[in-house]
Fold this sequence. Notes:
This protein is an alpha/beta fold. It is built from eleven helices and 15 strands. The chain is globular, with a radius of gyration of 23 Å.
Amino acid sequence: MKFSRRVFSLSLSALSLGLVGLSLPAHAADTIKVGVLHSLSGTMAISETVLKDTVLMAIEEINAKGGLLGKKLEPVVVDPASNWPLFAEKAKQLIAQDKVAVVFGCWTSVSRKSVLPVFEELNSLLFYPVQYEGEELSKNVFYTGAAPNQQAIPAVEYLMSKDGGSAKRFVLLGTDYVYPRTTNKILRSFLKSKGVADADIMEEYTPFGHSDYQGIIAKIKKFSAEGKKTAVISTINGDSNVPFYKELGNQGLKATDVPVVAFSVGEEELRGVDAKPLVGHLAAWNYFMSLKNPANTEFVAKWSAYAKAKAIPGHKDKPLTNDPMEATYIGINMWAQAVKKAGSTDTDKVIAAMSGQTFKAPGGFTSTMDAKNHHLHKPVFIGEVKADGQFNVVWKTPGPVKAQPWSPYIPENKGKKDEPASK
């Protein structure tokens, strides 16, 4: 009796395995899978969660128009939980097991560096939507955020100008990982080229998740009291921005005294902060929600309707858009255009079709994917924090700026080619 039950059980298992095996290819043939690789927990969730929702909104839009190549897009969402080695594991899972055609994801450069070998080894595609330090080009990555010459350098030039307060001393304050350290290496070199002495540059780093900024802001106040106009350049990332800005307010460090320009703080990060004491502090981005143009009006309206319909936490009652959301939205739409042009989701065919793709961006300009270097041509905006947590644009470039992935302010970059090597 035991034997026959065992045989019956094994037969059922074999039958179910057979059915699963039969159903998987049919399912895969019906949809095009799209990977979403963003931290939905941990220190970076404050910034990354909304990017996952932006991808899902864009997928819903594309599917409503009939999908791609006669198939619907199917999102596959994973949570690498602000754990940098886990990003690589999740990327491998998405590509090798889930068989996604493309991945939209990462925020920090350490997470991107973690997954890069996986995408190159498995010849898959990553769209990376956040400003970064440059010094990288990969055949398998499209960088839809800003390179340093599209954000960091213009911001510091503005601070040094008469309109920006004629700053003479600079505090380079960041989270301790590759993006802030490399960006500050570039900025230190840039500042020296403008005649700023080492004694007039203060550099400080804090770990991810850091929450006690009392001592550091006291040091900044002391540094700024030594006679020259001082500005802070912040590359703090994630939820540490909330205690940093709260402590700025607590210690009364006003923008008129020591302006802070941030590269990782937008509308979403200011949601949890009383912005009134921060009025006049700055952020440099390639998009702000407050921009007035038809493409942005449409983008904000789409997001507001989607956030309310999906009851997205925080956004249901106060929908906000920001720069990495725009970069994500541009990226997935350009990828969809490239798939249509290629008539395929094959990685190499899509890479070829991405060259020169354009999209009418919510930032108010037509974004172009550079024909060679896998970076977008992007406008640069500098905005002042308003009491409601939005930004008033005080400076902008006349039009989109071409990215320089290899900074001219790093001497060893001389002679490097401005295009990724094919593998």
